[in-house]
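Hi R.,

As promised on Friday, here is the backbone we talked about, encoded as structure tokens. Could you run it through your design pipeline when you get a chance and send me back a sequence?
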């Protein structure tokens, strides 16, 4: 079976790829519960408190729900980053942009902090 063209990929495929790529680089990518209609599909938590909201859509023929664009506008007006991602290549562009946002030094510091052994008991003075 050959590759599915990007224009014909399903939203679930793009969303699963987003989760995989975010996890690969140490971000938490969580599915948002539909408590509020028109809320973005996913929240991505990066280092140092950086947080993005992601709306995934099918690449071809997908439309916003009536309130989604308005909700995204309200979130952006309050300083939140909202991204609409429709293809795997857009996921790659998003990841590259986020990694570029954080310097190589900060990323390496984060990785080193994760590798430090946790202290057991009292810390000597």
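Update: got your reply. Pasting your designed sequence below so it's all in one thread:
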């Amino acid at each position: 079976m050959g590759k599915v063209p990007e224009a014909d990929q399903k939203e679930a495929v793009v969303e699963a790829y987003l989760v995989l790529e975010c996890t690969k680089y140490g971000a938490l990518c969580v599915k948002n519960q539909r408590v509020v209609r028109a809320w973005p599909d996913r929240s991505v938590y990066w280092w140092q408190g950086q947080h993005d909201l992601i709306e995934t859509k099918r690449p071809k023929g997908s439309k916003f729900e009536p309130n989604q664009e308005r909700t995204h506008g309200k979130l952006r007006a309050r300083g939140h980053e909202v991204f609409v991602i429709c293809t795997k290549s857009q996921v790659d562009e998003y990841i590259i942009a986020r990694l570029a946002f954080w310097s190589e030094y900060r990323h390496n510091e984060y990785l080193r902090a994760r590798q430090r052994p946790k202290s057991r008991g009292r810390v000597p003075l």
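One thing I noticed while checking it: The chain has a mean pLDDT of 82.

Thanks again,
M.
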